[in-house]
Amino acid sequence: MSFLRCTRSALGIWQIQSRVRIETFAVLPQACSVRGLVRWKNTTANHARSVDDQFSNAQWRRMVVGVLGSIGAVLFYGLYRHQVQQAKSKHIPKSANLIVSALDHEVKTTYPLYTRQDVIKHKTMADGVWVTYKSGVYDITKFVDLHPGGNKIMLAAGGAIEPFWAMYAVHKQEHVYKMLEEYKIGELSPEDAKQMMSDVTDPYGNEPLRHPVLRVNSLKPFNAETPLEILSENYFTPNEIFFKRNHLPVPEVDPKKFRLEIMGEGLKSIQLTLDDLKTKFPKHAITATLQCAGNRRSEMNAVRPVKGLNWGMAAIGNATWKGVKLSDVLKYAGLPEKTNAKHVQFEGLDKDLSGSPYGASIPIRKALAKDGDVLLAYEMNGEDLSRDHGFPLRLIVPGVVGARNVKWLSKIIVSKEESKSHWQMNDYKGFSPSVDWDTVDFSTAPAIQELPIQSAITAPCNDDHLSSNDEEVTVKGYAWSGGGREVIRVDVSLDGGETWQVAELTGEKQDEGQAWAWKLWQLTVPLPKNRKNLEIVCKAVDNHYSVQPDTVAPIWNLRGVLNNSWNRVKVTIESKSG
Q1: Set 21, 47, 49, 147: catalytic member
Q2: Marked catalytic residue, from 297, 428, 478, 538
Q3: What's the pLDDT band for 145 if we cut at 50, 70, 90?
C-alpha cells in the first residue's frame, strides 16, 4: 500500500466522521492503537467541550478535519509499517495477504488455498516438505534438520501430521502448536480439508480396557502406574494394576497366526509358533521386578524440568513370569558355543505408522548366561499375558531396565551390533547435570541396562496428616537393586536423616546373583512427641554395598532417568483432643 493510498484512506475516514459532533473524532487514536494518542484524545475532547461555545460547529469541524486528516494519514501509515514488520517477525509467509484493520489494530492474514494433490507433491527436501494439520498447510522444510525426533518427521511429508503426533504425547503442548504456525503457508480447499479430516484415523482406536484405579500419565500411548498407597500391599503386583509402559499403540495379535522369527550371526533362520514354544522347550519360572527408567522422574522435575512422562514412585512392579529360556531357543536355532556376536536384538509387534517396530538389545553374555534367567515369557502371575503386558509373548530380562523387556516380541536377531532402534540409541541413557538439549550427544553414553539400588516410601504418603493421639507410626515401602544384587538393608529416618532405624524386610529367598525381585519393608515406631511435622526418609543398601545418593540435584539429567536418591516424605501431625 503506497503512502498516497494510506493518506486517501485516512482522509476518507475523517471526512465521514466530520458529519457528527467532535467527540466522535476520538476514533482516530483508537484506530491507530497508539497509547499516547488515547491520552491526547481525552485532552482534545475535553478541550472541545470548553471552547464549543466560542466556535461554531462548522468552524470547529473544518479545523479538526484539516489537522486530524494530515496527522491521521501519517499515523495510519506508520502503524501499517509497524504492523507489517511485526508480521514479518512472526514468520508470516510472503504468500499470505496482509490486511491491516484500523478498528481492531490487528494484522490478519488470508492464505492461498491448496489441494491435497498440491501437498502430496511436496514430500522430499528437493521439492520442499509440506504437511497438513487440521485445515492448514505448512512448509516444514527448514525444520526437518531441527526436529528432535530426527528424520522420522519425513514420514508425514506430503500428508497429515496428526497420526504421527498422536503416537507421541510430547507433541500435545502449546509451544509445539505455536512452532508449527511459524511455518504456515496456506489452507486446504474446503473440500480437501473435509476429506483430509475424515481420513485421519486414530492409531489408538483399539486399545484394551484398563483398570480405573490406575494413575494415568498419558493416554496415547497409554502409560499408568499403580496407586502408591496399595503398591506394597502385595508382594506380587496384581496384573490389572501392574504399571503399564507403552511407547506405541497396543497391537492386537492372533495367537494362532503368531510367529517368532529368529536369525542372525551363526544361526539358521527359523520361525516358531506359540505352540512350538510351549511344547518344544522346558518351562521355567522366575520372580522378577520390572522398573521403568523414569520411575520417580517427578522428583527430578521438581529440581529442573526434564523431558518425559511425569512418573511418580510406582513405575515398578513385581511378578512371577513363566516361559522358555532365551538361551534354549538360541541353541535350538543353531547358535554355536563360540560366537563373534556381541548383542541380541529384539523387535516387537508394536509399530509406528511407518511400520518401524519398537526395538532394543542386550549384551549376548546376559542372554546366554546360565544364571541370567532371560525368558521369553507367555505367563504373568499364573495367567496368560494381557495385551498391555505383551500378549502373546514378551521378553523378560531380570535385573535390567524395563525398556529392554520388549513386549509383543516378534523377532530375535543375534548381531555384532546393538539395536539401531531409537529407544536403544537415542533414549534411555544417562548424562551429567551439565548436559542440556543443545549439547547432548547420545552416542557418547552407553544404553542403560542394569539399574542402580532403589527404594521408596509407599505409606504414609507425602502431605498426609497423622493424629497426635496415635501412639505409633508405621512406614512401608519397597527396595530393589538391578543386576541380581540383593537388598540387605533399608534404613529409615523420621527426622530428615539425623537419626536412623533399620526396617524389617520381607520377600522370597533368592540365590546369590539372581536376586531379581524386590524386598518389601516396614518399620513401626513410636510417634515422636511434641512434633508438628515429620520428614520421613528411606535409603537402601545391596549386597555390593551400593547406596543411594542423598539428593536429586547431583544426579539430575535431561531425560529424568535413574533417579534413586533418598526418598523423602513430609507429613503433618495434628493435635486432637479426647
Answers
A1: 147
A2: 428
A3: confident
